[in-house]
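Lecture 7 notes: from sequence to structure.

We start with a single chain of 107 residues. Read the sequence below before looking at the structure.
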Amino acid sequence: MKLVIILSTNNAERSWNAFRLGNLALNNGDNVSVFLIGEGVEYLKFSSDKFDIQKQVDALLESGKGEILACETCMVLRHQEGNKTCPVSGIKELYSLIKESDKVVTF
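Now the structure, written as tokens:
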């Protein structure tokens, strides 16, 4: 299955749960794309001991079957630059992900 997770919040618990779901899907042999939009591009700012988002992100990226993409417009609005855990992408890529996916889940 090809799963797309759209993360539009910077809430630590929701972000953590989104990546936990992504990793579970990867462990079950699925391909996972996480698209960060809106406040979602700030997701790592709120990683903590209780909600270790960074650990979940590392597992997703190390799997080789997971990817993260981020809305460039949303990043510009928040004065963020792209990096490994928040790579620049666009709304066209989001549309393509949705069109080509089997399932889409939003957080």
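The first helix runs from residue 12 to 27. Keep this in mind for problem set 3.
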